[in-house]
Amino acid sequence: MIGKISGRIEYRSIDHVLIDVRGVGYIVYCSDRTMATLPSNGEVVALYTDLVVREDLLQLFGFTTLLEKEWHRLLMSVQGIGAKASLAILGTLGAEGVGRAITLGDVTAIKAAKGVGPKTAQRVVIELKDKAPGVMALGGTLAAAGGAAPASEDALLEPFDPPAKPTVAPVASGAAAASAQAEALSALSNLGYGPGDAAAAVAQAASDAPGAETPDLIRAALKLLAPKG
């Protein structure tokens, strides 16, 4: 299994890039959102990858964060969702957006992805809703474990060493958001709230205030969880 690739971008197409790793070129397919964050041709990039094996085809799919890769894996487990549909959903909503949509049962947001019909979108929500809290809780851990592209040719000789800085700003901000949501979810769970209710409240709070830090998310979620009346 090829789990991560670090190398130089040789060329890019609409939905994939060719990454040169020590003279070997790997074609890696990415979502629109991921493609937009990648550096220019000739620059170094690091992507987490998922290898899809079929009888007549081997395809690599690339992700800027482990959280995005985890959602791709779960989306692919839903009947009717292949790699193309999964990338369309992730490209439309982003990893955090997918978590919020599934947790809140927002079928409309899921079906906004190209090629995803209402029945398939509903199936995604139904089959993954119970798994969403766990993935959200993993968000902070996955963000902390995530690496970034090496900064020089010398770094390519040691691809498994932790890099010193993130490749692009959008990845860092996405990791920070995932970490804040995960910490808020953990705090609510420690207060005794059920995982489903806690995840829905955190998702709603994050949707209402993108970029909010952990304390603000907790306060907003607690207000949403407070008894009405």
UniProtKB/TrEMBL annotation:
* A GO term from the CC aspect: Holliday junction resolvase complex
Keyword check for rRNA processing, yes or no: no
What are the start and end residues of every segment in region (Domain I)? 1-64
Listed GO biological process terms: DNA recombination; DNA repair
Which Gene Ontology molecular-function terms are recorded? Answer: ATP binding; four-way junction DNA binding; four-way junction helicase activity
**Which domain of life does the protein's organism represent?**
Bacteria
Per UniProt, residues of the DNA helicase Holliday junction RuvA type domain are 1-62
- The UniProt record lists the Holliday junction DNA helicase RuvA C-terminal domain at 180-226
Primary subcellular site in the record, as a coarse category = cytoplasm
Compartments where found: Cytoplasm
Region Domain III: start-end pairs: 178-229
Supply the alphabetized keyword list.
Answer: ATP-binding, Cytoplasm, DNA damage, DNA recombination, DNA repair, DNA-binding, Helicase, Hydrolase, Nucleotide-binding
Write out the domain note: Has three domains with a flexible linker between the domains II and III and assumes an 'L' shape. Domain III is highly mobile and contacts RuvB.
Tell me the function of this protein.
The RuvA-RuvB-RuvC complex processes Holliday junction (HJ) DNA during genetic recombination and DNA repair, while the RuvA-RuvB complex plays an important role in the rescue of blocked DNA replication forks via replication fork reversal (RFR). RuvA specifically binds to HJ cruciform DNA, conferring on it an open structure. The RuvB hexamer acts as an ATP-dependent pump, pulling dsDNA into and through the RuvAB complex. HJ branch migration allows RuvC to scan DNA until it finds its consensus sequence, where it cleaves and resolves the cruciform DNA.
Similarity-based family: Belongs to the RuvA family.
Quaternary state and interactors: Homotetramer. Forms an RuvA(8)-RuvB(12)-Holliday junction (HJ) complex. HJ DNA is sandwiched between 2 RuvA tetramers; dsDNA enters through RuvA and exits via RuvB. An RuvB hexamer assembles on each DNA strand where it exits the tetramer. Each RuvB hexamer is contacted by two RuvA subunits (via domain III) on 2 adjacent RuvB subunits; this complex drives branch migration. In the full resolvosome a probable DNA-RuvA(4)-RuvB(12)-RuvC(2) complex forms which resolves the HJ.
Q: What is this protein called?
A: Holliday junction branch migration complex subunit RuvA
Name the species this protein comes from: Shimia gijangensis
